[in-house]
Amino acid sequence: MPIYDITVPIRSGMPVYEGDPAIEIQAWSALAKGDSANVSFLHFGAHTGTHVDAPAHFIEGTRKIDALSLEALIGRARVIRVPDDVVEIGPDFLAGCDLDRVERVLFHTGNSSFWSEGFRKDFTHLLPEAAEILVDRGVKLVGTDYLSIEKFHSGHHRTHLALLSNNVVIVEGLNLSDIAPGDYELICLPLRIAEGAGDGAPARAVLRSQ
Question: By the 8 A CB rule, do 188 and 140 touch?
């Protein structure tokens, strides 16, 4: 049963969402310097690379990242290929997708080719109206292959709010470059960060063939 790692490696210089903390990975102690062990110091934001958004990201008083249900984060998922020239995933596009009995959907777009560049503002995104359709269909996790599921500087956050207010987990920052459309088992585990705003956390995400 093949296992596909769809996690973007965290490294200095990788793209981060505009305004988010830069990534710093430094040696805190090092065998090469005569220390007793190698220990790394990590500094980056909760929404770095492949990560999970919790409702607390945009809605005060709601569930934090350490309280998300593992049941939503593990299970059958459908990868849907979005043509590279489609920048907005809207109701018309979803109308042509088979979403029967689908609880987790991952959108593979042209964004997956952006990871070797600086931050791009023209990434493919999910429109609020399409997010509402996914909620109505009972989807409980939506994943995308860039740093936000929503249009850059949308000004309203309606896509995030439509999903998170209905307890739909958002996974952002996937790399689906080598993944064919179809059904897989998704295993996506965010770090269980128990302090702070609880808005999100980096995650390791893999797919297994069904």
Answer: no
Catalytic residue IDs? 57
Structure tokens at 39: 């220990």
List, in order, residues 6 or more apart from 75 with CB less than 8 Å away: 103, 104, 185, 186
* DSSP conformation letters of 28-80: EE-GGGT-SS-EEEEE--TTSSSEEE-GGGTSTTS--GGG--HHHHEEEEEEE
Model pTM above 0.85: yes
Q: What is the tens place of the pLDDT at every residue in 20-75?
A: 999 999 999 999 999 999 999 999 999 999 999 999 999 999 999 999 999 999 99
φ, ψ for residue 135, nearest 5 deg:
-60, -45
**Phi then psi for 16, rounded to 5 degrees?**
-125, 155
Q: Which of 11, 15, 36, 21 is nearest to 122 (CA)?
A: 15
State the CB neighbour count (10 A cutoff) for residue 21.
13
